[in-house]
Give the backbone structure.
Amino acid sequence: MSSQTPAPSSWRDTTIRDMLTADRLDSYLTASGGDLGKALALYEWNTRVSGAVMQTVAMAEVLVRNALDRRLVAWAASRPSASTWLDTAPLDGRGKADIAAARDRATNQGRLPESHGKVVSELSFGFWRYLVASRYLTTLWLPALSRAFPNGDKNVTARQPQVERLMADVGFIRNRAAHHRPLHRRNLGRDYAAVVTLCGWLDTEAGAWVAAQSTLPSVAAERSRIGV
C-alpha cells in the first residue's frame, strides 16, 4: 500500500478558496484582514452557526404554526360555516395561493386524501408571518390570532406590530442561514433573543424549552477562538 503526504495547509486553503470563489469569501477576508486561514476558519464557523440558527428556528417554527393553527381552528368552529379555516379565512390572493400550493404538496397533487395537519405543516414560515400582519388586524388578529401570544403586550392591538416584527426578524435570520449567507456580521445574541421571546409569548414553558435546547449561544461563542 502507498500513502500520500497531505498537502500543506496553505495549498489546501488556496484550493478551497478557489472552489468557494472569491465573491463568496469576500466578507470573510475583509473581516479577517485578508488572512486566508482565518477567513476560512470564519467561514467554517459560519456554517456551524447557520446550523445552530436552523435548529433553533425549527423549534420556534413548529410551535408558532401550531399555536396559530389552534386559534384558527377555534375561530372557524365558532362561525356558522362548518368549513375549515383553510377554506373560510379571509385571505388575500397570496395567502390563498399559498394554501392551494400546500394542499397540492400534502396530497401529492390530489393523489392522497387531505389531512389538515399535513397541509398546515406544508405552509411556510413566511405564510404565518404574513398572517399576523396588520392587513388582517380586524379580520383575524383581534378575533383569533392575538390569543396565540397571551404573554405579549396586554394591549392586543399594540401586540400585533410587536409580534409581526419578531416574526419578521426570525424569518430573516432563518432565510439567511438556509441560503448559506454570511452571519458573522449579525448580532446573533439579538437574533437568539427574538426567537426565545417569540416562543415565550406563546407560552412561558415553550420559551424556556427553546432556550434550553438551542445550541446557538454556545456555537456563536466559538467565534472568539478564531481571533477576528
User: Anything to note?
Assistant: Residues 83 and 179 are 37 Å apart (CA to CA).
